[in-house]
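sorry for the late reply, my laptop died twice this morning and i had to redo everyting from scratch. anyway the thing you sent over, i finally got around to it. pasting the sequence first so we're on the same page, its 306 residues, then the predicted structure underneath. double check i copied it right bc i was rushing
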Amino acid sequence: MPWPEFPRFKPIDLADRDFLHPRLWAYQPSTSELTFTNLFIWRKYYGFKWSVLDDCLVVVAAAPEGNPVPDAWALPPVGTGPRADTVLRLLRWLKEERGLATPRIRRADRSLAAELEIRPDFAVSPVRDDFDYVFRSRDLIELAGSRYHAKRNHIHRFTESQAVLYEPLAEPLLPGCLELAEAWCTLKRCEDDLGLMGEWGAIKEILDRFGLLQIQGGVILVEGRIKAFTLGEPLNAQTAVIHIEKADPQVQGLYAVINQEFCRRQWPDLAFINREQDLGEEGLRRAKLSYHPDHFEEKYEIRLVG
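ok and here's the structure:
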């Protein structure tokens, strides 16, 4: 059998991309978690493992000791057709075989929530901290109108004061991106925050395997040095998802510049940009809201009743 059959799970590795990516893409996901890149770069932090149950891809998380994940949980099963029975089997297995008092599906999309909320054996609850911020591409590219006045000013001041060059991310630029990310992490004291350490690990993974993951990126160079970089990929036929965005925090305007340029150069033909969730971090929430999302991609937690 070329894939693990439930209840056998295997850790995610790069060789799994040929199996997992086509199935995730066929689902045309709307939530940012459901790309191979996302699962791969966060696999160590969350302890992701995968299996196939009822012809659905199922991913469970059981983070290594020391990570801020209280117990095992599962992402929503990915597949066509009704999934209620698959969710029921998965949650009962987590309870009976893994010994979880409150097994749960996290970050379920609206389509699965709608299917399950009419069933008496499931409790379905929205989780605001997990909602993805989804923007119209044209809004992020044009920054038109009074609500983007401050963004345009930041970009204008930055580009007027120095020579700025945007380049698509390529192999020779990867060491400079890693250097910038490491400097950012030192300044933000990542070692004191398990979440930031998890992100640092994800950044190293995505840069180390940039070509093999088949994703896109861009950089901003100032006087020949990388001062900002970003990485993303198509999430579905109408939407790109931004996985990573980092800029020198001591230079005002960089985030606005890299955001606009990457969208303008890479995603002009897509309708939407998904910039992932804020995880309840207040500063990040303010920053994402300042770009005026078109809508939120709601996500839900699903538990057994009884």
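The chain has two domains: 10-131, 132-276.
thats about all i looked at so far, will dig more tmrw
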